[in-house]
């Protein structure tokens, strides 16, 4: 399978679940034991606004490789028919681009690279 032929929105669909799994594991490892507290903390990482800010951090600090930047650009520029009402389209596209990046790396079985990126996001 050629990962570059996969629609970036499909990569984002996959990346969304992988990203959320990493965040949930991170929060549980912080010994947060109440579901409501877990949910409140998770929103700080999984909201479109947060994901957009994390992508900006990764790109501003030149932490992405060339192929990763290509996926981010493709996903950011992908045509979307809708977006959530509580976020502007640009923020939504950046969040989608971060999710596509995670999906891309997952398809390529680059778990160590996902770990590096997630450590940057969670501040470890």
Task: Produce the secondary structure layout.
Elements: H1 8-29, H2 35-46, H3 48-60, H4 66-76, H5 89-107, H6 111-122
Helix pairs in contact: 1-2, 1-5, 2-3, 3-5, 4-5
Name a few traits of the molecule:
124 residues; Ribonuclease iii, N-terminal Endonuclease Domain, Chain A; 6 helices; 72% helix; mainly alpha
Distance between the termini: 33 Å
Q: Report the top-level CATH class.
A: Mainly Alpha
Structural class: mainly alpha
Report the mean per-residue pLDDT as an integer. Answer: 94
* Main sheet summary: none
Number of strands: 0
Rg, Å, rounded: 14 Å
CATH architecture: Orthogonal Bundle
Task: Categorize the overall geometry.
Answer: globular
Q: What are the low-pLDDT stretches, counting only 5+ consecutive residues below 50?
A: none
Kindly summarize this structure in a few lines.
Helices cover 72% and strands 0% of the residues. By secondary structure, it is mainly alpha-helical.
Characterization of the model:
The chain has helices spanning 8-29, 35-46, 48-60, 66-76, 89-107, 111-122. It is an all-alpha fold and 124 residues long. The protein has one domain (3-122): Ribonuclease iii, N-terminal Endonuclease Domain, Chain A (Orthogonal Bundle). Helix 1 crosses helix 2 and helix 1 packs across helix 5. The mean pLDDT is 94.
């Amino acid at each position: 399978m050629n990962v570059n032929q996969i629609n970036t929105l499909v990569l984002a669909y996959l990346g969304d679940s992988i990203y959320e799994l990493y965040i949930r594991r991170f929060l549980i490892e912080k010994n947060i034991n109440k579901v409501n507290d877990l949910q409140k903390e998770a929103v700080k990482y999984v909201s479109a606004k947060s994901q957009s800010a994390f992508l900006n951090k990764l790109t501003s600090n030149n932490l992405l490789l060339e192929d990763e930047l290509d996926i981010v650009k493709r996903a950011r520029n992908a045509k979307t028919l809708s977006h959530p009402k509580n976020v502007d389209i640009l923020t939504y596209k950046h969040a989608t681009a971060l999710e596509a990046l995670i999906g891309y790396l997952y398809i390529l079985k680059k778990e160590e690279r996902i770990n590096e990126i997630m450590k940057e996001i969670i501040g470890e």
